[in-house]
Amino acid sequence: MAEGWLRQLAGDKFNVFSAGIEVHGLNPKAVASMKKIGIDISQHSSNHLDEYKNVDFDYIITVCDHAQEHCPYFPSKALRTHHNFPDPAKATGSEATIEKSFDDVRDLIGKFCEQWVLDETKTSE
User: Helix (H) and strand (E) counts for the chain?
Assistant: First the structure.
């Protein structure tokens, strides 16, 4: 979801990549949640961090404590930002409750990404 938000909000100001320490594929509920607000992430991919080990990033953003704590050393001079969000894939209850969890986390990530893009475009001008 963060990749979708950043691509939407940053336009051509940043090249956005997304990776994890585990690859599970796209969650259909995340795709559906983002689609509700007009952001199509259905063609995004679930990539492993190793795919980017030769990319010299300017920024690295982690969005869950598990990644922050278990991410292997990633050599880079990149500015690092971390913000933990709840994992909506772990939500339990009715379909409506789970859907709301995805929407709530989507909105939290959106607010974070909006502020991040605003802050970073100010400092890079």
Answer: 4, 2
Q: Where are the alpha helices (DSSP H) in 1-125?
A: 2-10, 28-36, 65-70, 95-123
Q: Cα angle at 104 between 99 and 119, to 5 degrees?
A: 145
Domain that holds residue 44: 2-115
- The domain total for the chain is 1
pTM (2 d.p.): 0.88
| Domain-embedded: residue 121 | no
Is 21 inside a domain boundary? yes
CATH number reported for the structural domain that contains residue 58 in this entry: 3.40.50.2300
pLDDT, one tens digit for every residue, the chain (125 residues):
999 999 999 988 899 988 887 787 889 999 999 999 999 999 998 788 888 888 888 998 888 876 666 665 666 788 888 899 999 999 999 999 999 999 999 999 999 999 999 998 886 55
Q: What is the DSSP letter of 73?
A: P
Exposed / middle / buried, residue 72 (Cβ in 10 Å: 0-12, 13-18, 19+): exposed
